[in-house]
Design goal:
Strand content: 15-25%
Helix content: 40-55%
Number of helices: 25
CATH architecture of the largest domain: Orthogonal Bundle
Radius of gyration: 33 Å
Oligomer: single chain
Number of domains: 5
Largest sheet: 6 strands, mixed
Shape: elongated
Length: 689
């Protein structure tokens, strides 16, 4: 069967402490007995589903419970006779998963699909039956959950399972919500598994499910999953943390501090609810590692709930006026929400008796979203017709990180690459927003560079990126971006250009790394790399060089054209022997020629071949403007000229200097090339270097 069969009593030492405080956990044995009794009379709900209905009505008082009744009856009858490994009726699993979601405020459609989420895979019920009985929306979600259920893929089992989950989630985030609740129930009841299997499931939960819960904003699931994983993978640290929490029981100063906060807010005329929120086990463990010996106020935080956004700042003002604020602890996630929808004010205040209490201030709606994330947002498809069940859905709750995961998972060449990339992507703990020059935005992980922005905006077309402006200034492609930056990316239209291997040193996103690696794999001999991102000013370096069509009157000598003056036919030239026996060719008017002759260096006669291409360096002086570098590069390409290298100096008083080393098929085309470059708007002069 798809769900992990388990025993809720198998780990008694972990059970009481891992219950979320203030939330009633329904006894699964009682649910099992109620399920075995069969359908209830028509005038009331069965006892087993009654607990779900009660939790659902607490969030949605006007909800139609009849559909839940029908879904339960179908699930119970189809799963009848199936048992979990713990010996309980199998129906207790979908009931428990649905109860988790109901407590978090999931809407009726999600709960209906949750009750039925294992029927299509594990029973004779078909997807068509689900659609016919409960509608396309429920059928769509059940189908999505069915596709991500665990099946045997051997060594690639987990990577392939979560690749499928991402695909399904991309079409409806409620699929992921059910999967997370499913894993939470299985983690709660993991005791009948062999220790090695417990560890394997716990590691996958730690590496993938917990970060996904974090990114979907479902903190209630995330924190309990963290504690369950902690107990399995780190039993000694878990036991020490349990002992720490037990030792401080009865001596917690936070209730007294909360009373003081209530009094302050009451005197200020601010209607607020003040709670003490105990830290969960992993949070206590992290704080103990950070601070060493813990004091009583370190075992929890004070939560202040108000009605409006403005009230949050009013509470903050009173707290900072009546207590001593710890300025370094202040964070405003209301003005700048986290990427997972989270909004709150965070601060810390010191009391007269020396305690420091962390305080979280949020509205009640913010609290719902902080606890339940996307689950609290209700049905994202409340309007619109999806009768065909196959059309692409535009999910308003889909955050930028999920869109990125969906993009690169399609191009990941194998499960191992996908798996390592997924873990790296989920390890990013913060997201930044940068503005595109065209007015759009890009969501990127912290530490992302212009290379990452290029692939996020243009996909594989970013292979031809030749430069970037950040906040109006030219910069290297390897430059890191900060939250709020404006980035303008410059692309080459030369299909032969592509990234160099050094781009991988600057790519932070999995999408960029997979795209670059794929291009390099397809071009093992290399091509014209478009940039070296580590350097500034911006440089574009080509693969062509050597002596071109210059020939020295010195047998077997290697000939090189000097980079300082880049002579081309029919320039008068002179050659000089340099270290290693090579001959470097300069234009006779070059300052280097005068210096070498002054030193007594002997010239070597050089002549030009009658046919062959030639290399030249041109300097374009221009006024700075958007897309100038791209327009200049395009003008050069239209003349059939190859860019060997290019340097763009930082602008000075809105003037920009571009230096190009170019390979012309015929020196006779140089005047036409220079005219084409001068005709580019903003360019006021083009000359030889």
């Amino acid at each position: 069967m798809s769900a992990e069969a388990t025993n809720p009593e198998a780990r008694p030492e972990a059970r009481p402490e891992l219950r979320r405080r203030g939330r009633t956990r329904i006894d699964l044995r009682r649910l099992g007995r109620a399920a075995l009794l069969g359908p209830a009379p028509r005038d009331r709900l069965p006892d087993a589903i009654g607990h779900v209905a009660e939790a659902h009505r607490a969030h949605h008082p006007d909800a139609d419970l009849s559909v839940l009744h029908r879904a339960y009856l179908l699930a119970e009858s189809s799963h009848r006779g199936q048992m979990r490994k713990s010996g309980e009726p199998y129906i207790t699993h979908p009931l428990a998963v649905t109860l988790i979601l109901a407590e978090l405020g999931a809407e009726t459609t999600t709960l209906t699909a949750s009750l039925l989420h294992d029927t299509v895979e594990d029973t004779e019920v078909t997807l068509d039956q689900v659609r016919a009985e409960f509608g396309e929306e429920v059928g769509f979600i059940v189908d999505g959950v069915t596709k991500v259920e665990k099946i045997d893929y051997g060594a690639a089992a987990e990577p392939e399972t979560f690749r499928k989950m991402l695909v399904a989630t991309g079409n409806d985030v409620r699929v992921m919500s059910i999967k997370l609740a499913d894993r939470l129930h299985n983690m709660r009841t993991l005791g009948v598994m062999r220790p090695e299997k417990q560890a394997r499931i716990a590691k996958v939960t730690r590496d993938v499910l917990i970060p996904l819960a974090e990114r979907l904003g479902v903190q209630a699931l995330k924190t309990e999953l963290e504690d369950l994983v902690f107990a399995i993978l780190h039993p000694e640290e878990y036991e020490r943390t349990r002992a720490l929490i037990a030792a401080q029981a009865g001596s917690d100063p936070l209730p007294g501090i909360a009373d003081s906060v209530r009094s302050v807010l009451r005197d200020a005329g601010i209607a607020a609810e003040v709670q003490v929120r105990p830290r969960h086990f992993v949070s206590v463990h992290r704080v103990s590692l950070k601070r060493g010996e813990l004091r009583g106020s370190d075992f929890g935080r004070i939560l202040v709930l108000v009605g409006e956004n403005a009230d949050c700042y009013a509470v903050l003002g009173e707290l900072h006026t009546c207590f001593t604020p710890v300025v370094s602890e202040f964070k405003d996630f209301i003005a700048a929400p986290k990427f997972n929808l989270y909004q709150s004010l965070h601060t810390a205040v010191a009391t007269p008796d020396g305690y420091v209490a962390e305080v979280i201030v949020r509205t009640r709606q913010m609290h719902r979203v902080a606890e339940a994330g996307v689950i609290a947002l209700g049905n994202p498809y409340a309007t619109g017709d999806h009768a065909d069940g196959d059309e692409e859905r535009a999910d308003p709750t889909r955050p930028g990180w999920l869109a990125r995961l969906l993009d690169w998972q399609r191009s990941a060449p194998d499960p191992d690459t996908f798996w390592s990339g997924l873990r790296a992507e989920l390890a990013q703990d913060r997201e930044i927003t940068v503005f595109r020059a065209d007015g759009g935005t890009l969501g990127l992980p912290a530490g992302a560079t212009c290379i990452d922005a290029a692939y996020a905006q243009y996909g594989e077309a970013a292979h031809g990126c030749i430069g970037a402006r950040v906040n109006g200034r030219l910069t290297s492609l390897g430059s890191r971006l900060s939250d709020g930056d404006t980035v303008q990316l410059l692309l080459s239209h030369d299909s032969s250009s592509g990234p160099g291997a050094d781009w991988l040193d600057h790519a932070r996103t999995t999408a960029a790394r997979i795209a670059i690696t794929g291009w390099l794999r397809q071009h093992p001999d290399g091509a014209t790399p478009t940039t070296t991102p580590a350097r500034a000013p911006l440089s574009v370096v080509g693969a062509r060089g050597g002596g071109g069509n210059a020939v020295a009157d010195l047998p077997d000598a290697t000939v090189r054209l000097a980079g300082c003056c880049t002579p081309v036919p029919p320039d008068a030239v002179a050659g000089f022997v340099v270290r290693g026996g090579a001959v470097t060719v300069h234009r006779v008017g070059c300052e280097a020629v005068a210096r070498m002759r002054a030193l007594g260096r002997t010239t070597v006669a050089v002549h030009w071949r009658a046919t062959a291409d030639c290399r030249v360096t041109l300097v374009a002086e221009s006024f700075g403007r958007p897309h100038l570098l791209a327009d200049l590069t395009e003008a050069i390409a239209r003349q059939g000229v190859e860019v060997v290298s290019a340097t763009v100096e930082p602008p000075v008083e809105q003037r920009v200097r571009h230096t190009y080393t170019l390979l012309l098929p015929d020196a006779a085309g140089l005047p036409a090339l220079m005219r084409a470059m001068r005709n580019v708007p903003g360019v006021y002069d083009v000359g030889r270097a």
